[in-house]
Amino acid sequence: MSDISVVGMLAENWMMIIGIIIGGLCISVGVHFVPVGGAPAAMAQATGIGTGTVQLATGSGLTGLLAAGFMYKALAAGGIGLSEIVLICATGAVGAMIMICVTMLVGNWVYIYGVGTPPASAKVDYDPITGNSQAPYVAPGTVGQGMPTVCFVSGTMGGLLGGLGGSLIYCMLMGVNGDPAISSIFAIGIFVVNAVLPSYNIQGTIEGFHDPKFKRVPKAIVACFVASLLCGIIAVLIPGIGGV
Predict the structure, then answer these.
(1) Which DSSP helix (H) or strand (E) runs through 144?
(2) What is the pLDDT confidence band of residue 163, given thresholds at 50, 70 and 90?
(3) What domain range is 198 assigned to?
(4) What are the CA-CA distances from residue 41 to residues 18, 117, 150, 212 (Å)?
(5) Are 63 and 55 in contact (CB under 8 A)?
């Protein structure tokens, strides 16, 4: 491929690349909203869902992509414009939100009725949403348990951003190559990239937007901007992915 054709393809698809970058940044920020407790949460010794950031982000992203794919197929016959992209992204966001909300709800059932611990956070004295006192309900020797209201609300917002970002990336890739299979696979890859980088930024567990670790978001934004830019360029230039 000559230098002229490379520049031409980048110039022709610059809006697609920008869309992929925006989608990647939405995913990056959304990961920081999702309450993740890892192994400690699985033993009711920390707030959040008892698994890692990448697993949760990828799970919600895949659900959002599935919902977005169905909506894209339903709207494709009439052509895909800005209004259709908005509907597709909204569908993906709702799909990811539902996945995260159901996961948190069932997790709380296990904590409350299975383990016998009330959802409580040790990161704040009072729940920022309800104003309820947290310290009296935190089990001794733990840093909280379950998903209190603020964690649940934060996780819902994280699912929305993740699903929105993944759906936008899918729409951009479909605009480049028009192949649902290739677009889905590469969108999942970009999603995982933008989920892994914030997981290193978080370093283990996070409760949500009220957690002190949330202040690290700017670092993740810079890293994911670079990663998404490279992914966008690859998506446009590589034969098969870029529709060459």
Answers:
(1) strand 143-146
(2) very high
(3) 3-237
(4) 37, 12, 16, 18
(5) no
118 in any annotated domain:
yes
Q: Which pLDDT does position 13 carry in this prediction?
A: 74
The first and second tokens of residue 163, run together, are 């699903």
- Asked whether the beta carbons of 210 and 128 are under 8 A apart, the reply is yes
The count of domains in the chain is 1
User: What average pLDDT does the chain have?
Assistant: 87
- Assign 8 a pLDDT band (cuts: 50, 70, 90): low
Report yes or no on 242 lying in a domain. no
* Position 243 in a domain: no
Q: What is the pTM of this model?
A: 0.90
The answer to whether the beta carbons of residues 47 and 107 sit under 8 Å apart is: no
Confidence check: pLDDT of 199 > 60: yes
Report the C-alpha gap between 128 and 208 in whole angstroms: 11
Question: Which of 29, 34, 212, 195 lies closest to 107 in space, CA to CA?
Answer: 34
225-to-91, 134, 194, 218 alpha-carbon distances in Å = 24, 37, 9, 10
Structure tokens at 53: 């950031």
* Domain assignment of residue 78, yes or no: yes
What average pLDDT does range 157-178 have in this prediction? 90
Lookup: tokens for 94: 């709702």
Q: Which residues of 114-134 are buried (b: 16+ CB within 10 A; e: fewer)?
A: eeebbbbbbbbeebeeeeeeb
Q: Kindly give the interhelix angle for 14-33 and 217-237, rounded to the nearest 10 degrees.
A: 150
